[in-house]
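Summary of Year 1 activities. Much of the first year was spent building the evaluation harness for sequence design. The harness presents a backbone, in tokenized form, and records the residue chosen at every position. We chose the following record to illustrate the format because it has been used consistently in internal testing since the harness was completed.
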């Protein structure tokens, strides 16, 4: 336990941590302390990134590798080769590492929210840390490690765009970008099963189960904030997607998982309409 810091300050410290294993350990320790009521919460505090960290662009904390490139510049590797197979696992590990940062950022950045908001996102951070650790261990079993392949920074770029608006953050990160994982994970599992990597299939089953809950957290808080601010959720989501130039949703959609994650039928219908007529 770090004396003198509340839960949100410790979340910021974990976010600044560069080494993935140490970040995961810090998140786990913080969540344990939170559940045991060993750490206070000061929801009204307006926190800032320490000047030395801000000066060296240390938010979020991440290791020197992987090298970040534009999505179009990611090398194309056949999943039938050992390197291509490992690169696919690495891509999922990178998403989970980013997801730790996204959840921690929601905890420290946005003041004046209910205690449950901070508890929800801290729990999400801990589950994402577990996901990353499982994938890192699997990469090691394949002879690789996180950082061995290039990656892109799309998730964090949207987090940076929405840093000043918690409603936009809930709308466009968990409900849009992270919800994409609900759609693609079953397809990834089928590909990995064909290659005989049943351990990866098992890990992705755990991830999919938890990610339904994570998207549900984003959905629940988005609708809560819209109700509080008298915003119509679907119309406001469309406005935010245009304003922040969010990527368009792409089918096929895992409608069952999305329903369990709290999407309403009118939202799912709109999702299909947007995909069919993106402009």
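For this record, the design step produced the sequence shown next.
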């Amino acid at each position: 336990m770090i004396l003198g810091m509340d839960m949100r300050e410790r979340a910021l410290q974990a976010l600044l941590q560069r080494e993935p294993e140490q970040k995961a350990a810090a998140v786990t320790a913080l969540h344990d302390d939170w559940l045991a009521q060993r750490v206070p919460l000061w929801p009204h505090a307006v926190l800032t990134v320490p000047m030395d960290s801000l000066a060296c662009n240390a938010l979020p904390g991440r290791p020197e590798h992987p090298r970040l490139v534009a999505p179009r510049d990611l090398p194309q590797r056949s999943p039938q080769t050992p390197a291509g197979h490992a690169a696919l696992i690495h891509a999922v590990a990178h998403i989970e590492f980013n997801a730790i940062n996204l959840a921690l950022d929601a905890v420290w950045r946005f003041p004046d929210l209910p205690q449950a908001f901070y508890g929800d996102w801290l729990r999400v951070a801990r589950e994402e840390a577990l996901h990353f650790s499982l994938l890192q261990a699997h990469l090691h079993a394949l002879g690789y490690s996180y950082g061995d392949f290039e990656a892109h920074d799309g998730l964090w770029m949207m987090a940076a765009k929405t840093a000043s608006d918690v409603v936009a953050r809930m709308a466009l990160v968990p409900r849009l970008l992270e919800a994409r994982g609900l759609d693609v994970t079953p397809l990834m599992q089928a590909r990995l099963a064909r290659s005989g990597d049943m351990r990866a299939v098992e890990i992705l089953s755990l991830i999919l189960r938890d990610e339904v809950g994570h998207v549900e957290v984003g959905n629940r808080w988005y609708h809560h904030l819209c109700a509080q601010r008298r915003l119509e959720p679907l119309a406001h989501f469309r406005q935010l997607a245009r304003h922040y130039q969010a990527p368009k949703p792409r089918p096929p959609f895992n409608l069952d998982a999305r329903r369990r994650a709290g999407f309403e039928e009118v939202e799912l219908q709109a999702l299909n309409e947007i995909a069919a007529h993106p402009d």
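The domain at 7-276 is CATH 1.20.1260.10 (Ferritin). Quantitative recovery figures across the full test set are reported in Table 2.
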